Amino acid sequence: xxxxxxxxxxxxxxxxxxxxxxxxxxxxxxxxxxxxxxxxxxxxxxxxxxxxxxxxxxxxxxxxxxxxxxxxxxxxxxxxxxxxxxxxxxxxxxxxxxxxxxxxxxxxxxxxxxxxxxxxxxxxxxxxxxxxxxxxxxxxxxxxxxxxxxxxxxxxxxxxxxxxxxxxxxxxxxxxxxxxxxxxxxxxxxxxxxxxxxxxxxxxxxxxxxxxxxxxxxxxxxxxxxxxxxxxxxxxxxxxxxxxxxxxxxxxxxxxxxxxxxxxxx
Length: 266
Hints:
Blueprint: H1 8-16, E1 20-26, E2 50-54, E3 78-82, H2 89-97, E4 107-108, E5 114-115, H3 118-122, E6 126-127, H4 132-150, E7 178-184, H5 192-207, H6 223-235, H7 241-253
Antiparallel strand pairs: 1-2, 1-7, 2-3, 4-5, 4-6
């Protein structure tokens, strides 16, 4: 596949239509992508994301003796969507364009040394696997599995050391990566409505867990995205000025008029 965009969209759509979905897109091989194997300092993997969508429902609050009222987000699918690196490349790009440091433990520079300077990644650095120094073997395992599962669609191709092919970080050449999508009908196992209600009850129970000091509330996977989408539909989407300038250049080159900017914040 070429770039699939946000793979969470696929599992979100499946979940809203009552299905469970699992999607992963991965590539691996010498010099591929911008992520390093655990313990390494050279590119070998893409960010190889995973996404899972699970349907839920918003039952009558009276059906749950612990429930007070239906909370925002109930009825939305449980949505898991993550890269197998500590942070995805896009967040490094945002940090670079915003002149902000990358959090510690996310990237190495071209010499294999830890750095918080975003540009170091684009100058030959690498992303570190999810889990960091203590648990990076787990993120590496997920990334490696993603690439090999995606390779199911390319069995027989003469690529013994390569699964998928990606351009260098920041490149715009055509890229390819293996993709795997699993779609599950809960109705094949029993009452799909009962399953969705169970998902909602478990989600409510998770949200009722006592927050740790400094944490406002316990969320479930998908809550941050749902809340962000609702805010941005009202307030718009914030972009670094450098990103907007790049869009303006592309639009101008193609004769496209951009909408006026409101509430400009640099």
